[in-house]
Write a structure and sequence with these properties.
It contains four helices and four strands. It is an alpha+beta fold. This is YbaB/EbfC DNA-binding family protein.
């Protein structure tokens, strides 16, 4: 053991992370609509950055925002009261309530199609 006490202080020479105000404002609005608290899952999505996925506590409604990197994501979570960092486990997955409009939004142009082109691999099928 060392005679020096362990410190959990942040390095003062580290550059400050700039938190996007629009992301913080939209997440604060989401948290307010969901009763004042939400769970957040931080998911790296490659070159696009980090997806901040929110699951509201009162209704389980999903929301998400994308930020450039993990440092910014952690700074956004720290800037908003009522957020609890979580992982996708059985409880959180069960609490998530996906609305039908969310499926339509994620499907994009395919959601409103009545006819689809023939598959190119139909001879194999």
């Amino acid at each position: 053991m060392s005679d020096q006490p362990a410190t959990d202080s942040v390095d003062a020479s580290a550059p400050a992370v700039e938190v996007p105000n629009d992301v913080v404002a939209s997440i604060k609005g989401f948290v307010e609509r969901e009763g004042g608290s939400a769970k957040v899952v931080l998911q790296p999505i490659g070159a696009a950055g980090v997806r901040i996925t929110l699951v509201g506590e009162s209704g389980g409604i999903l929301g998400d925002r994308v930020v450039p990197d993990m440092a910014v994501a952690h700074a956004v979570v720290a800037a908003v009261d009522g957020l609890e960092t979580a992982e996708w486990d059985r409880d959180l997955t069960s609490a998530a309530n996906v609305s039908p409009s969310h499926y339509t939004k994620m499907a994009g142009w395919v959601a409103n199609q009545k006819r689809f082109p023939r598959p190119r691999n139909r001879a194999i099928l």
